[in-house]
Amino acid sequence: MHIQSTEVIDTFAEAFAMWGARVIITAATPAWALAAARSMTGFATSVIGCKCEAGIERELSAEETPDARPGISVLLFSTSLEGAGKRLLERIGQCVMTCPSTSCFNGLTSGEGVSVGGKLRYFGDGYQIGKSLDGRRYWRIPVMDGEFVVEDRFNIQPAVGGGNLLIHGLDQTRTLETAEAAASAMRTVPGVILPFPNGVVRSGSKIGSRYKGLPASTNDAYCPTLRAFSAATEVPLDAACVLEIVIDGLELRGVQDAMRVGINAASGNGTLRISAGNYGGDLGQYRIGLYELLQATA
Amino acid sequence: MSLKLVLKHEPEVPLEAEVITPAKLNGLSIGEITKLPLQYGNERVEVGEFFRVEGSYSGEIHVEGDLARVKLVGAGMSEGRIVVHGRIGMHLGAGISGGEILVEGDAGDWVAPEMSGGRIVIKGNAGHMIGSAYRGSPAGIRGGEIIIHGNAGNEIGHAMRKGLIAIGGDSGDFTGVDMLAGTIIVIGDLGNRTGAGMKRGSIVSMRPAQMLPTFSYACSYQPQFLRLYLLHLSRLGLPVTPAYLNGRYQRWSGDALEMNRGEVLLLNGEAA
Asked: How high is the ipTM of this complex?
């Protein structure tokens, strides 16, 4: 199948069941809310090395937040409910509570509740104050600029991680431009994040390594410099750059929508080929076929 | 069609009508409801003697008339909704654990003593001892919300342990006396001796107040948690202004005669 001059490969992205949370950070100004969100979503590109994947979902206007202050919606994903709970506790404690003027709220209505504020409250050393309002419980933890308000429990729901697109381009410059544009378009889909730097990853990985103990190693099939070495190469003859966009979402539908938007946005402009990464379909719980995505809109 | 009880004539002495709750009227015919007992002074009478009953219960009970001498309406309520079109007497919603009571007029003393859940909204004024503990009882309300749009009397939230009491107008003396926890927000003036004997909990007012000498001034700051409460009250129709949301509040800690972990927050002006 072709979209403009770009070939779309008949393959699928292999996505995985994960657990996801939505965290609402508010602050005195949009800049401080963003500062906390950036800190919280730092070093959260891949569960392989970061134990979680996180990103900014979108900015929130004051009308959209629980305390009518400017805010940021952050999504965080991990491979287990317990792991997601631990990461929330660590990152809200170290990155949000530390950021001046912030408050932090659960942004999901469904899922399993885990204690976050209920544990962070101990930082208050006995001076913390609990408040219950309209079925929700909050903690007021005294800090040096006043109080840090954090919700007692955060919901974590089944989610989908590892949706992906592989963009094969003629050169790095044009492929970067294309990937940036695609990522920008994909971020408009609600309920998803693109956890890698600026939404794009160049070091796609395969499972395992020739070196003992390494769980993952470079995906040689998509490395242009290894085209001559690798029998399994997937790099077209004229391609010199392959960039991947990874998508995590609270729902499968969001991941699918983001991939569809990404395919359309990345097509043309010198993009030779669009494909997706998978492991043969044996590991992930979800197969997201590129043709099925495009046919769904036809 | 919802169930309607219309007061046929005003009682001369207090009429105890604790049968007027959703759980006790649900599923009954009009005939059965009119036979339910009421306590009228020292006599047992039937509902039909004082009320004309219309319709059938479908989650909501409407009570009409001047019910200033009708007590205990909604006592023990756990679900559904009662709407009182007029004044209501003492002990409205005593021990309520769920559901909602809306009074479109004034309410007497002892609204929702020892409630544990649900919501009571009084569009007019209310009397003394709103959301309080019974005399000799160690704790008052343990949850739920009492929203008074007008003024309220003395000893609001006496010994309350949890929940929210909001007064759109002024409150009388001893607001939050012996409070254990929970939140009282008074948009207007507080009476004398606010928070006397309080252990924990929050009492908030948008007006200056004379504090007891056993309360200590801490600072003037913007309590972010208060925004959640004020926005909630605004949605319920109380007059919340941007100055309340964005203002700085004096924080007074007390009562030093007790645990000194309570707080009184007094609006001190808008933030710079």
From this structure: 0.94
